[in-house]
What does this fold into?
Amino acid sequence: MSIEAKQEEIIEEFSVLDGDMEMTINYIMELGESLPELDDKYRNEDYIVKGCQSKVWMHAYLNNDKVKFDADSNTAITKGLVSLLIRVLDGETPETIMEHDIYFPEKIGMNRFIGTQRSNGFAAMIKQMKLYALALSSKTKTGA
Amino acid sequence: MSTAVSTSVEQIRKEFPVLHQEVNGKPLIYFDNAATAQKPKAVLDALSHYYEYDNANIHRGIHTLAERATSAYEDTRKSVGKFVNANETEEIIFTKGTTEGINLVAQAYGRKFLKDGDEIIISQLEHHSNIVPWQILADQTGAVVKIIPINEKGELLLEEYRKLLSEKTKILAVNYISNSLGTINPVKEIISLAHDAGAVTLIDAAQAAPHHPLDVQDIDCDFLAFSAHKMYGPTGVGALYGKRRLLESMDPYQGGGEMIKEVTFEKTTYNDIPYKFEAGTPNIADVVALKAAIEFIQSIGYTFIHDHEELLLNHANKVLLDIPGMTPYGQASEKASVFSFNIDGVHPFDIGMWLDAKGIAVRTGHHCTQPLMDWLRIEGTVRASMAIYNTIEELDIFAEALKDIVKKFKK
It folds into this structure.
């Protein structure tokens, strides 16, 4: 599935919630619970995503020239939000990740649900994921 | 204080338009009063009336509107003077708020009179606004900042405070009421001990003004700062009280119009207090509306406010303490209507988001008191801070909401 298709799928899922804040938070938390466990060795300062109010640890690596993301957060809601980004970007090539706009947070009304400050945190996470992709892209080229 | 009229919380609530709305489909419950309080109609009316009828720049204007604006501005100064029981109206300086009041004293008094090795005493309970200005001053002068420790209940350890005092102590600056824990500090005793050591004293009354009568002559503080917005007044305005003798000895805080007597390129002479500390066109409209906020508090009376808020705090303890996993912070014997807490296994941010979804506004995080959070060995808390318009029923809804949230995390 393309990055666009994955984003459209998320937008569709959230539209069903019809702006109900409690249902939305419930759903976001459920998504977070299904995120695979992050290895404890990545739960340190080196892997913290800056700009987030709550803590997010994120690790990225290459698997067959595709980027894999592992992440966790100390808050359940943030973890759910991170899981959405991973769903969109995980398994794509570094170039694809760098090229594509991530527009679904705005479309699902992230400003309304997580407030402006949290959206900045969200933007920081997207930026960090693209930086990971950039760093990993050089590895695929040198490896090739 | 005995001006309390027969009133009810229901009547008071009618004065606050913002309270009567739904947030996320639920009736708004506003428990973020320690951050800022809502504004009664009288304050909103004072603001719009000023702009609709009286707006002009104050002092030195010869036309009618300038005269009206000047009188309204200076009437608030008189009102604030009485509100804090100052000896003279000239001892009241308008500021942007508590933070500016403290910075003004740190720079205009501290920078002039402190030197290398002098000591400034603050406490473990302070808001960043009563920490950082003193750290800046310490960097500028070589003075040292000392900290009064607290006990597990969140009360200042006065025996330890006594040990910190010496002839080196030049400034003592503490809050009247802690914003994070609600502790009401025995400021009169603290000030008296500081004076015995020869220190100048400043009280951060930001959290006290909405809850507790202020009497600068009784507590005998040298400076006292507060903000209008926490006491049902507008944002962006506050007042600093200072004893005349000290204010006159200080250098100006900022230079500009209003604060001068004569300006030539060779030499400028400064205006008398309070104008010496009010450079530039001040926040006239909000100063004018501050008077309405003071009158609002006076119309209810601190006795009624105290009794109602004590009722709320007692009820909060009753319905919140037995929630599974509850850890309250701050159990001082003298305490304002603040309930700060964490729930085991749930991040404060998640609790705050869930409460917001249920229409309940609280604050989560370190509340600008990171050193206090470090001492408590936590990142932050959830803080519900109550005001005169909050009700027992709102606390019951809050308790049920929390129980519901806890269940979601115990799946």
About this structure: The mean pLDDT of chain A is 87. The first strand of chain A starts at residue 56 and ends at 63.
